[in-house]
From TrEMBL:
<protein>
    <submittedName>
        <fullName>Glycosyltransferase involved in cell wall bisynthesis</fullName>
    </submittedName>
</protein>
<dbReference type="InterPro" id="IPR001296">
    <property type="entry name" value="Glyco_trans_1"/>
</dbReference>
<dbReference type="Pfam" id="PF00534">
    <property type="entry name" value="Glycos_transf_1"/>
</dbReference>
<dbReference type="Pfam" id="PF13439">
    <property type="entry name" value="Glyco_transf_4"/>
</dbReference>
<dbReference type="GO" id="GO:0016757">
    <property type="term" value="F:glycosyltransferase activity"/>
</dbReference>
<dbReference type="InterPro" id="IPR028098">
    <property type="entry name" value="Glyco_trans_4-like_N"/>
</dbReference>
<feature type="domain" description="Glycosyl transferase family 1">
    <location>
        <begin position="170"/>
        <end position="307"/>
    </location>
</feature>
<feature type="domain" description="Glycosyltransferase subfamily 4-like N-terminal">
    <location>
        <begin position="18"/>
        <end position="124"/>
    </location>
</feature>
<keyword id="KW-0808">Transferase</keyword>
Amino acid sequence: MRIALVAPLAEAVPPKLYGGTERVVSWLAEELVRKGHKITLFASADSETSANFVSCARQSLRLAGIRDHIGSTLAMLREVRRRAAEFDVIHFHIDLLPNALFQDLAHKCLVTLHGRLDLRDAHPLYEAFPEMPLVSISDSQRSPMPKSANWLATIMHGLPAHICPFNSKGGDYLAFLGRISPEKRPDRAIEIAKRSGVRLRIAAKVDNADLEYFKTVIEPMLNDPLIEFIGEINESDKREFLGGACALLFPIDWPEPFGLVMIEAMSAGTPVIAWRNGSVPEVISNGVTGRIVESMDDAVAAIATVSLMSRSSVRAEFEKRFTAERMAESYLTAYRSLLALAPVNARNLASVIPLGVRKRLSAQTFIPAQAFNGASQCRTDAQNILDPV
């Protein structure tokens, strides 16, 4: 298949430091290339990939100090639109904008939603543009969405088995990895460490939006010999950090859409102590890969139980459920389902768009004319599209 992957411009693909969505896009791109598909990645210029690459920003926007990403993202989408006829599938990882801007090409597009969906601010968009096929990263993530949302699949994240290599021994400290913010509850992690007497290492970035929270709430709690604040770490440092922990603390206080750090820890064989919020019950196998808790007392008590868990069993569960290969296969199944429905979707689009508008749109180079024709012209050679080339 000829597949376009459209990444956020906030970070490079993969990120130089912190970044979840861009890391997932990188793993997906590399696995699809390995499987023999023709992949084109739209991302910032500091990205690294085996896929065909289209640079859409001189540098990842966060590191460049650019706060408002809409202008750069719209410029990227113009380039995607100009080249749309080159692809069988266009796979977006930038949430909202494709729904409105690629409505007429919905038969060959899908959007993976990586963020929280319980805030109703964006719901009118999904109600107004129900054509776009959507992918959720957990079942809990999609539950607050309006009934008009056009769900194609739920596909949980996966990562290459070598990214966080298995560590059979672990270590003697608790780990907190990610971002300092109220919903991530690093204050809970610190309190758990102090109550249990077990050392805590915090590897996390502090965004400008969370700087006041860090200064007023978290920084005063760091003055304790049990607590070590490391700051933001890169991919290489993450391997040692997670592998050397006795457990990962995931004390979230929000409906986490997925929680990539949980499966990174599982890859290293490190069990997870996580609050029962969002996707946690879908990711953690309670008693096998960690403990799901609902209170501070539960979390403190869980430290003793996770220390008895088999790290090899934690790793085995990761290999069964959360590899990049499994994720890529799930997306290929979704792509094929999308393409199987494409002729019907194209006919539906043709029926609702006035003939004059269709002719005018079809004349533009960035919209394939076959998108507005009947089923027989939507795909000239289905076998060539569905099979790797």
